[in-house]
DNA sequence: TACAAGTTAGTAAGCACTTACTTACATGGA
DNA sequence: TCCATGTAAGTAAGTGCTTACTAACTTGTA
């Protein structure tokens, strides 16, 4: 439970310890929520006295806030459209939606803690979810609905409110990731690779399931 | 804050009080989670002393367990296919998916607390979410994927793993409901009626967005 | 008047957070 | 090369408050 990986009889630099506390806190908040996680438990898992937590973070709320910054800087919030720039240029519709989906699914899988953290914060009306959705999600909405709008004008897509299409598509991905992290982690109901899921989601969105 | 609706200077019958406590607890657990809700707060909102809560429920965990029973019996778990039986018989594909979607969206809207409660319990690894998903959700998966399978055999639907299709469709609905309850309750990003959302989701699933 | 509904006034344990202190270590002048 | 010194890492032992939960009592009503 304590001091899990390596023995550190010696002390750590402040910055290293800070990050260590942050990462333990992320794991615990993700697992048990904000109010379900005690500062004592965090300190215990880090292998340090509780006072150290408060040396690095003014209070528990500030620790939470700093997790947001940390996550926002280190993870997930780089440009989500960089990897599909070629498909965008080529107006390769399947490539665009497949790329977006695959990207998202892989990301979610790598960082399940982040999904849980986001959900916890959304349920507890914390800032993280607001920040995340206002900056990140609405950007995706704007971008994708812009793309759809353009393709509608070019006569390639049918005339339907682009934001509903985005909601449908984002829903496929998020729900799939949430199923795999929250409700069906053993994937009893459905077990598919990220590639297959992304491919089918993109196909369904573009062509539907009717012959 | 206290005693919000009607004056009750007189006392209540045990059973009525029990249900009142249950319903207040549901609202608070939904809002702030299990560990974020105190028994004191519950008693306060009911307008009764904290000891009364423990007269009716042996402890906080038992209160939570009884909420599950209460919700499972009273709400949400009636047959979700009853209302689309005619469309099913007529093999009206749009009708089937539109009906399912509209049904789900309306249900979620009526009972936002239930969504929040489910999410909280999923995140906290409580029993409610397991029970619900094993009994209710997997039933929907079986049923819908059965329908899709049948229509594939009849040569009407393309050949794609039915459960992926169900995941995509369920994802549209759940994510839409979650957006409206959790992340964008003012519907800034997207504001549509349940009917329109259901119609577009069904159309997208069946026909896609390409011309 | 019997008995259930209700309260008051607790308890021990747990919570976030603080205080007052001790230790390890890098550094620079002798 | 030594070791005094400043500083940052670290701790033990609290603080006052909140928590879930209880016991012993009072009150309303059928």
Describe the protein in words.
Two copies of one chain form a homodimer. With 211 residues, chain A is mainly α. Chain A has ten helices and no strands. Chain A has helices at residues 14-32, 39-46, 50-56, 60-74, 85-90, 93-110, 112-123, 127-153, 162-183, 194-207. The interface between A and B is large, with 56 and 56 residues. The first copy, chain A, binds a DNA duplex (30 and 30 nucleotides) through helix 3.
Brief overview, please?
The structure is a homodimer of 211-residue chains. With 211 residues, chain A is an all-alpha fold.
Order of helices and strands of chain A: HHHHHHHHHH
Oligomer: homodimer
Q: Report Rg of chain A.
A: 21 Å
Indicate the percent of residues in helices of chain A. over 70%
Give the structural class of chain A: mainly alpha
User: For the largest interface in this structure, which chains are involved and how many residues does each contribute?
Assistant: A-B, 56 and 56 residues
Q: Count the strands of chain A?
A: 0
What would you call the shape of chain A?
A: elongated
Q: How many helices of chain A in DSSP terms?
A: 10
- How would a crystallographer describe the biggest sheet of chain A? none
Indicate the proportion of strand residues of chain A.
Answer: under 5%
Give the rounded overall mean pLDDT of chain A: 87
Separation of the first and last Cα atoms of chain A:
56 Å
How is this fold's topology laid out?
The structure is a homodimer of 211-residue chains.
Chain A: H1 14-32, H2 39-46, H3 50-56, H4 60-74, H5 85-90, H6 93-110, H7 112-123, H8 127-153, H9 162-183, H10 194-207
The first copy, chain A, binds a DNA duplex (30 and 30 nucleotides) through residues 10-14, 17, 38-40, 48-55, 59-60.
